[in-house]
Amino acid sequence: MFGVVVCPKCHRARGADLSNQTTRCAHCSHIIDLSKARVYARTDSKEKLPEAVRRMTEKLAVNIEDYPAERKRPLARASEQTKKPKKADALNLEELRSLATDLNRGKEYFDSKDVQLSLKLERDEDVQRLIDKMLDRGVIFQPQAGRFRIV
Ligand SMILES: [Zn+2]
After folding, report:
1. Does residue 64 fall inside a structural domain?
2. Cα–Cα nearest to 115, from 80, 81, 142
3. 53 C-alpha to ligand 1 centroid (Å)
4. If we measure between CA atoms, which residue out of 93, 112, 2, 89 comes closest to residue 52?
5. Which H/E stretch holds residue 62?
6. How many domains does the chain have?
7. Cα–Cα–Cα angle for 95, 101, 104, nearest 5°?
8. Residue that finishes a domain, picked among 37, 58, 81
9. Does residue 86 lie in a domain region?
10. Residue 29: exposed, middle, or buried by beta-carbon count in 10 A (0-12, 13-18, 19+)?
11. Residue 78 Cα, ligand 1 centroid: separation in angstroms?
């Protein structure tokens, strides 16, 4: 069995006979430990190996070119996603109380929709987690299923 591995040192793809324990990188002479290396493509035929290496090399080149642009977008999105739940998660008892007071203001009960709207939480699980936290801390209670009231 042959496979395509990427040199951990110079990040170039090369073909290797996977029955060997190690292979030496042709570019930087680094000894790649094949038992630990990630194999990106496998093939039974040695003839297909250069083609597989070439494809992996192209893929690596594309990845490197895309790197700055690709990195920026998912990172921004990831931080946005973690920010909102984090904000709700980070609320201390005082803040939970004041939030519950606001939610309960002018009405007898509030529900998960109110929580969602007031904090602009996108995911139901974040809403549920916040409600659970308020219930857990004794800030609110649930007189009826799905209805909450400040203690
Ligand atoms: Zn190398």
Report:
1. yes
2. 142
3. 14
4. 2
5. helix 49-89
6. 2
7. 140
8. 81
9. no
10. exposed
11. 32
Regarding whether 67 and 6 lie in a shared domain, the answer is yes
Q: Are residues 16 and 70 part of one domain?
A: yes
Work out the end-to-end distance of the chain between its first and last CA atoms, rounded to an integer number of angstroms. Answer: 67
What proportion of the chain, given as a percentage, has pLDDT over 70? 83
User: Are residues 50 and 98 located together in one domain of the fold?
Assistant: no
pLDDT digits (tens, 9 = 90+) for 41-55: 999 999 999 999 999
Ligand 1: centre distance to CA 14 (Å): 9
What's the pLDDT tens digit per position in 24-41? Answer: 998 999 999 999 999 999
Residues 100 and 143 in one domain: yes
Share of the chain above pLDDT 90, in %: 68
* Residue 77 confidence (pLDDT): 55
Position 70 confidence tier, pLDDT thresholds 50, 70, 90: very low
Residue ranges near ligand 1 (ion) with Cβ within 5 Å: 7, 9-10, 25, 27-28, 30
User: What is the Å distance from ligand 1's center to 17 Cα?
Assistant: 16
The whole domain housing 106 covers 91-150
pTM for this entry: 0.43
What are the residues whose beta carbons fall under 8 Å from the beta carbon of 109, sequence distance 6 or more?
A: 143, 144, 147, 148, 149
